[in-house]
Amino acid sequence: MISFPIYLDNHSTTKVDPIVLEAMLPYFTEHYGNASSKSHELGWKAEAAVTYARKLAARLVNCEPRDIIFTSGATESVNLAIKGTAEANFSKGSHIITTKIEHEAVLDSCRNLEKRGFTVTYLDVEENGIVSVEKIAKAISPQTILVSVMWVNNEIGTIQPINEISKLCRQKKVLFHTDATQAAGKLKIDLSKLNVDLLSFSSHKMYGPKGVGALYKSGRIPRVRIVPQTDGGAQEKGLRAGTLNVPGIVGFGKACEIADTVLVNESARVKLLRDKLYSGLSSALDGIKINGDMKNRIPGNLNVSIEGIDADSLMVSMKEIAVSTGSACSSEDVKPSHVLSAIGLNKELMRSVIRFGIGRFNTEEEIDYVISKLPEKVKKLRQISPLNKQGSNGNSQFKKGDYAEI
Ligand SMILES: *Cc1c(COP(=O)(O)O)cnc(C)c1O
Question: Are residues 23 and 96 in the same domain?
């Protein structure tokens, strides 16, 4: 039995794993102490729970627990990493390198720094969505203090060559931050073997609660210095002031523990579902094209253009499926995706993009449902859609009035 809607938007957020929720619940009403309260049992209990969660988060990425800073999510972690590094290293230089396909958390932090006198290079990626290590090497100057490249892209699922980039940065004595929000819990991350200085990840992208995440800051040599971005307390070694979200952190820790345990099997299962979805759709339909490299891609991601359709119209006709489309739509304001334009899609093709994000709770039955229903909806839309009659240059070969009545 399928329960609708079928949730295939696991890059936006994920359902809290019931085991995670169960672990969190006592920390709302029973063990509700402040982890900074040193004078009573409730405080100690909360502190112990945070310490344990820190161990679990560290184990997932194979680092020292003391190198984990708990935050309110990846957006905050990224802000702390990028602005914190910039402020701490201003005397050494004012140049930062990143890519055009980063999450807004990275791009907006960089734009903020540009207003404050920093220079930022936004590197192009190749057509397959992967950044060339050579281009990064060429962009590094004596002024460069930080390189920030995401581990996995949230739209097209492509995996960046983090090992090579981190080696390059170490060699050039430049700090390296990676936004690993879409990688954590999906790919094996071993920080003990990498030259990564800072790494951001988030609980709600890996079946934990929303509003909690972490920044890994290497405690190894060379020393990594960052300036805190919040004032008001000595929590997290003075790097992130504010009362700790104990239930959230407990849930995040549990989510890390589960991910670490199931990662290999879950990746294989999710990849089978993803591949089945792609082969099912592409054998039923012409004009389906994958966006981004298919080999260097996380198992749960399928991002496709479906020629001749408007993805938003398609999803309106299929409300029982929850996916994302190429244009992040906020009220009347339709913004084309900066990621899709960076890999060379034109506006018309961008409008036809659907991102499927398959995750832990999806079943084969759900994938079969999508394969059995979506192609016929596409065919219907293509019959009535003006987009269908457009040339590959995006210019309609038809005049108004030539379009079929909708
Ligand atoms: C979701 C996401 C973020 C933001 O994470 P929050 O915890 O929601 O703040 C940052 N980067 C990437 C790649 C993401 O997918």
Answer: yes
